[in-house]
TrEMBL record, chain A:
It is an enzyme of class 4 (lyase). This is 3-isopropylmalate dehydratase small subunit. Its EC number is 4.2.1.33. The keyword Amino-acid biosynthesis applies.
From TrEMBL, chain B:
This is 3-isopropylmalate dehydratase large subunit. It comes from the Bacteria. NCBIfam families: hacA_fam (TIGR01343), IPMI_arch (TIGR02086), PRK00402.1 (NF001614). It is an enzyme of class 4 (lyase).
Amino acid sequence: MKTLRTGHAHVFGQNIDTDQIYPARFIEYTEEADIKKYAMAGSDDPDFVQETQPGDFIVAGTNFGCGSSREHAAITLKGNQVGAIVAESFARIFFRNAINLGLPVITCPHVHAHVQPGDQLQLDLKAGEFKNLTNGWTAPVEPLDDYIMNILSHGGIKPLMRAMTSQGKVRE
Amino acid sequence: MHAIEKLLAAKAGVDRVHAGQIVNCDVDVAGINDLYYQTVKSFVEMGGQRVKHPDDVLIFFDHYAPCATVIQAEDHKKFRQFAHEQGIANLMDVNQGVCHQVVVDRGLAKPGEIVVITDSHSTMHGALGAFGTGVGATDLATILITGKLWFKVPEVIKITLTGHLHPGVYAKDVILHILGDLKADHGIYKAIEFAGPALKDMTISERLALCNMTTEMGAATSYIQPDDRTRNFLKAKGVTDYTVYTTDEDYHYQEEITYDVGQIGPQVAAPADVDNVHDLSDYQGVHVDQAYIGSCTGGRLQDFATAAKILKGHHIALDTRLIIVPASGEVTRECIARGYIQDLLDAGATLSPSGCAACIGIHQGLIAADEVCMSTSNRNFPGRMGSLKGQIYLASPAATATAALTGQITDPRDYVEAE
Ligand code: SF4
């Protein structure tokens, strides 16, 4: 896993729910190639998919990903190669889904007030530090539990479980 | 330790756990709903070959029941195939209803057990003393392969309810009031426990509504200490094998809050946030195009009994439609047996098959731009029940039935007390 990441900011507000990230009307799609077309389609920035570049960051206020359990919300952001999501807090299921897909979800208090759309951002997962390279604002990020870091460092739960099932560590 | 901690410790096979700790637990009930064929895909991608405990797995055809598009039908077909291959007998087909209500109807949510479903409102099962929590598809696939899942032991917020509910005011008003007060992010990662004397008066149906909506506070789970009501409810279903854990006297709650339910009147969550809660009287007179009684929050037998009482012998307003969706097949049959459906149909209601229906804006009762829907469900953000420009007010079944009757937001107390 890349522990030093840089990218441009896409900024969203508080309580960005899963219908903003991935509207319910597209839920019946099950392939990432389809799912990635509708990222943030229900939000204030419905053109996100056209505008985003691989490695870009999403920055948000509190409770990012609240609402339904749909994994599509994490899949669509991963499909658009979002580098990290940095928010003041995350809804629990979204957090789990993102970690499972190997998508870094980073909790950083007050981040929303210190980032403008398009700012160049840097995340150092090893040092636990977030930096806005455009305005110089630096903040520590909340450390991730070892259990979660282990999943992330394998690139998500799927490669981890695959390794376990193929080594016979999971008895079926 | 808290009862929830004891439960998690037992399921993880350890003596003690503490808040913040990550534990890997045996899961007793693992539910997949039809929105998430992704679960099967993740199972295959992770190298899964056989489901470890097929008897603990349920597949629910609820959000698409019955299918409205070909893609939905294809998803159901693939699920049927998977259930067949894996020996999953508990395929809850399109006649069964909303996952959470089916679990409760069948007595599968029990004190001391872990219920995990690919649906956020799994917090509801705390009303029966279970650890209920929602997960995404890949987490559920992990359970399919290993029978286990990791959980972070939550801190617990205790909400004590005192006083007596006034006639015309219900658990739904209480939880809306609490949501308006504490706001949508108050409970993130936390467990919300309800306690106190007012709870003793509440039926299991009302307790389920309370716990169901803790999801809208971000809660990981919720809890009500099982009591005689819980035991009697389960006994009537023939369920007696479960473990009741109790919280130690010296357990330290993260936060303790008290509400006097006697101070709460009918509430609404106005568009477009679930915590945008006000006294219903502030919106008195707003025209209602559609009244919707259904969902895992407000589609139980008691909810239809209340609605039927208000509407029996009357007719709904001319410019208003009333959609009724009993949460499960069992609820539908019971409502028919008791005459509620007849009363509501006579009053002009439209009966839709059990399932999630318009609660999630997929089918069976979507609203158009600028239309107003009053609903007994749990979410009112833009587009939840159809057009992004539709307006959703969340309220109790009594308030929703009253709105159908008068065609506008109306204080239900005037109609309930008249009975
Ligand atoms: S009834 Fe509504 S809230 Fe409940 S599970 Fe179905 S879609 Fe979700």
